[in-house]
């Protein structure tokens, strides 16, 4: 792939890229954003860079309007008007202020396909827009859409600040048993959404008062904590298969806090029931999952992982605890799937390992897909046994990515084993309940950023995915964000979501009698056994 070298504040950085996006879009996915305020149309003239080496093509019309002939001769260009195809070296003249909100990494776009923008916009708002939010346990995705055309105007992605109160949903729910902590958790999530709205509207030159609708999807715990209501029910087994009311009861106050239209509709799409949230429903809508061949399996990997099995008549669903291994990583070598994360590990010549880094040249650690790859590589070489122990008895595997040194420890491997065992047991429970053996599956759809970068062969080698032909496994990206967008703009999407709710049957894993045996069986680092 071509390489982009970046000079900012006198320091040199670099990243690999696929041709297609503008230079501004490439920079926005990294930590090296350039100033902008016009949706990348070239109208503001702020995203100035200096071309130091490489072919950026001739100046575009917008650049000739914003820059003088002397500036163009000096190498000044507008990042939004350059679409790099080969190696390029640029200096950022107008760096943006640091922000925790960035354009989503490659593959995390939430743009829906096949849904017309036919939902009537709220009255009294000129050129109304809306925001689709995927409130994840680890990350929050937000995208702004033109409600009339359905066109995506801009996207943002950042960390869920509730993470400092616990990496998993149960820890946060337990903390929220104290009323003052429940309000703190609610404020953290609401404030984060407000910050994302502020960042995207300021940076893209949008009037936040044009936002007339905000549609939020998420797992049940995140929605209940956001709304600050009924979250305690999720700690009671009687509600693990029951609906939980997470509606926003004070929408006008939220709208005022977010500085959006006072009449804005605040929609928290209700969870299906128990720990199965509306993010699963949104993902099934966006992927048109039930329209494909059956039986089919849908897996949304995450801290709270959700699984659906479609038999052709019934949608069987469940949720299981994936933990941080899939999203934010654990131990000294773990990292979220963002710029600087090692997302791919492969065998190279001479027994060496090759590493690929996401949107940067400076490795910060292994994200979930990189962890799967590394464990699979070490398993094939015999350095890790089927039980997850290191063959040399050292308890760790040291490796270097560039100048950065890391260590994969037993704790890291154990976290992955437990996460994949929970997924495997969930798949087994759905299959047994529906009477569908693994060998009968005709399609598997893998959702989430973790899924977007997953190496199917490596995932199957350690037993994370069933042994289905690779051409029947689809890596679909952030279907929850895409589904949230579809529900924001489309009545067809809303109708589809309601049909899915009616056909869904929730499986409580606590009631699956063979769960413990299935969990232990799937702890081993070996391929799943087809029935």
Per CATH, what is the topology of the domain at 129-278? Nucleotidyltransferase, domain 5
Main sheet summary: 6 strands, mixed
N-C termini distance: 41 Å
Q: Regarding CATH, which class of the domain at 129-278?
A: Alpha Beta
| Major sheet strand order | 20-19-11-12-13-21
Global shape: globular
Helix content: 25-40%
Write the CATH architecture name of the domain at 129-278. Answer: 2-Layer Sandwich
Q: What is the CATH H-level superfamily of the domain at 129-278?
A: Domain of unknown function (DUF4445)
Structure explained in plain terms:
A 6-stranded mixed beta sheet has the order 20-19-11-12-13-21, with helices on both faces. A 5-stranded mixed beta sheet has the order 2-1-5-3-4. Among the domains are: 3-92, Beta-grasp domain (Ubiquitin-like (UB roll)); 129-278, Domain of unknown function (DUF4445) (Nucleotidyltransferase, domain 5), CATH 3.30.420. It is of the alpha/beta class. It has 15 helices and 21 strands. A hairpin with a 3-residue loop joins strand 6 (129-135) and strand 7 (139-146). Helix 8 crosses helix 13, helix 8 (278-286) packs across helix 14 and helix 13 (479-489) packs across helix 14.
């Amino acid at each position: 792939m071509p390489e982009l070298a970046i000079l900012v504040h006198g320091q040199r950085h670099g990243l690999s890229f696929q041709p297609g996006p503008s230079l501004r879009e490439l920079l926005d996915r990294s930590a090296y954003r350039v100033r902008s305020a016009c949706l990348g149309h070239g109208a503001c003239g702020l995203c100035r860079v200096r071309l130091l080496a490489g072919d950026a093509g001739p100046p575009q019309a917008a650049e000739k309007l914003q820059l003088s002939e002397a500036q163009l001769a000096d190498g000044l260009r507008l990042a939004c008007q350059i679409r790099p195809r080969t190696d390029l070296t640029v200096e950022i003249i107008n760096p943006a202020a640091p922000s925790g909100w960035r354009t989503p990494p490659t593959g995390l776009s939430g743009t829906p396909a096949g849904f017309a923008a036919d939902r009537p916009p709220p009255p009294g708002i000129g050129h109304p827009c809306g925001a689709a939010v995927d409130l994840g346990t680890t990350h929050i995705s937000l995208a702004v859409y033109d409600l009339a055309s359905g066109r995506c105007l801009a996207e943002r992605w950042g960390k869920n600040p509730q993470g400092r109160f616990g990496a998993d949903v149960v820890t946060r729910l337990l903390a929220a048993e104290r009323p003052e902590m429940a309000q703190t958790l609610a404020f953290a999530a609401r404030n984060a959404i407000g910050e994302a709205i502020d960042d995207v509207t300021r940076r893209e030159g949008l009037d936040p008062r044009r936002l007339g609708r905000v549609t939020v999807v998420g797992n049940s715990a995140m929605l209940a904590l956001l709304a600050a209501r009924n979250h305690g029910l999720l700690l009671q087994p009687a509600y693990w298969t029951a609906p939980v009311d997470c509606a926003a009861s004070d929408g006008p106050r939220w709208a005022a806090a977010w500085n959006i239209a006072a009449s804005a509709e605040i929609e928290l799409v209700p969870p299906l029931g128990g720990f199965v949230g509306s993010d699963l429903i949104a993902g099934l809508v966006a992927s048109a999952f039930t329209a494909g061949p059956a039986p089919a399996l849908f897996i949304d990997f995450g801290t709270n992982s959700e699984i659906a099995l479609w038999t052709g008549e019934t949608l069987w669903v469940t949720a299981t605890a994936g933990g941080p291994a899939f999203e934010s990583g654990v131990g000294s070598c773990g990292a979220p799937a963002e710029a600087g994360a090692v997302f791919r590990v492969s065998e190279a010549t001479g027994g060496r390992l090759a590493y690929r880094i996401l949107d940067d040249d400076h490795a910060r650690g292994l994200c979930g897909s990189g962890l799967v790859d590394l464990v699979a590589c070490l398993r094939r070489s015999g350095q890790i046994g089927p039980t997850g122990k290191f063959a040399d008895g050292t308890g760790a595997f040291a490796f270097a990515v560039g100048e950065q040194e890391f260590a994969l420890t037993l704790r890291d491997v154990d976290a992955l084993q437990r996460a994949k065992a929970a997924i495997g047991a969930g798949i087994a429970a759905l299959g047994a309940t529906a009477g569908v053996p693994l060998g009968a599956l005709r399609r598997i759809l893998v959702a989430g950023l973790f899924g977007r970068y997953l190496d199917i062969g490596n995932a199957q080698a350690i037993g994370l995915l069933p042994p289905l032909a690779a051409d029947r496994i689809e890596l679909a990206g952030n279907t929850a964000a895409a589904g949230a967008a579809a529900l924001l703009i489309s009545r067809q999407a809303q109708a589809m979501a309601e049909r899915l709710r009616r056909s869904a049957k929730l499986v409580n894993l606590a009631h699956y009698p063979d769960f413990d045996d299935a969990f232990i069986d799937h702890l081993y680092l070996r391929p799943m056994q087809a029935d």
